[in-house]
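Human: If only I could read backbone structure tokens as easily as an amino acid sequence. Take your time, and here it is.
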Amino acid sequence: MMRWVMAVVLALGCRALAASPCTIQTNWLCAGTPQATPCYVIDSGRTGPVVLVVGGMHGDEAGWAAAGQIAAWQVRRGKLVVLPQANRPGVFQHTRLQPAESNAALRDLNRNFPTKTNAAPRGALAAAIWAQTKAVKPDWLLDLHEGYPKLATRTNGVGSSLIVMTPMLTLPVVSNLLDAANTIVTNTAQRFRLLRQPIAGSLARAAGDRLGCHAVIAETSRDNPNISERTRQHRLIVHRLLRKLEMDANGPDVLTRRQPGVIRVALYDDSGGHTRVSVEDKLDRAGDLETHRVDGGMIERGVLEQFDVFFAPGGSGSGQARELGEKGREVVRKFVQGGGGYVGICAGAYLASRSTKRPYLGILNAGIADVDRGRDVVTVELTEAGRKLLGCTERELKINYHNGPVWGPGQKSAPACEVLGVFRTEVFPTNRTTRVTMSGTPALITGTYGQGRIICSSPHPESTAGLDAIFLHMVRWAAPK
């Protein structure tokens, strides 16, 4: 999810939806300070409830990503108010606490709101958030968090729970939210449960005690490594509430909308894929790229229609192919065939290739000549076309390599690939012998499939120091023109 230019993106989105009855007002809290963070008021123009959604209170939790996606939603009555990155500096630095707060007692933002013994919020950021909360007068407040579940070895975990004000425990809508959260939970240890009373000093507790608001803290489980699934649980909870309040105007899998000058990138985040946070950060900081994590189920349900580029990361090409399944693979093929871009690195490059042994996509006209060569730093010589496309003046690059494909010929009847770079060193497998020569084979290639463009790299430029610009050129080149 794009942290760095979200305000610009959403403002553009408001103008792009001029035909919609919704208007979007952006309120900057702590404007002009390092803690500055935007709050969006999405107004249907019709009388109805006010729902406030907060994310990023703790910067290392993925609630901010879900809230940022919800900020792209519309409502058919009432107002949806979204504060995606309450602790914005913490979100940028992936830290739970406020990194710039010098007073250690105030570093946990979600302990700084009014309590029964202290009517005033503590610290400038908490004061601004509290003032905004009072100004919008929410009927419901949902604060999106993550925790670890309560297990035999972890007795105080709050992960996989909805924490509500005690009087709300018997409300039918609360049990309905619980059902929504559990619709995609397969691990019984991660099933959501109800807990009472948000902790004193939290925004939810303050809103419940002092504003009479229906306040809920939604805690997904950080034991679930799939970030896209955790953010979807948050979206399902919020969407179910909007539906019960007759406010919903779109489904829970709306993540983004088209914006002028912004390339929307879907990051594969499921079995077989290793999308690193550092890679996500590099894309986000580019300024013209908006990223969201998607899993196999979301791809099957058509979420790629909202994107310009699909990024398949390292990991296991076979694992990604299996997780996508026959239907998901066909969805990706049609996405590229219809003009979508495809960027594949290592495992993602395998996934795009042709193979008679594995259920790869087959959208790249290159066969797999060898696999599992090992790990090393390799020398790649760029072709003239490669230097031009990647914006690189150097002829040779040192790139991290980890079992990427060694490509061989494709099908003569299909569009030929263009080689951007070739291996100039060998990586010899330690557990077997091979007669396949790696040196001289393609390391980076491009191709077309229908109206879409494909660019794949066997080694890892995205995780090699100094090659960020090359990686970003790959993504931008794949985007539809």
Q: What stands out?
A: The chain has 13 helices and 19 strands. The first helix runs from residue 6 to 16. The longest strand covers residues 140-147.
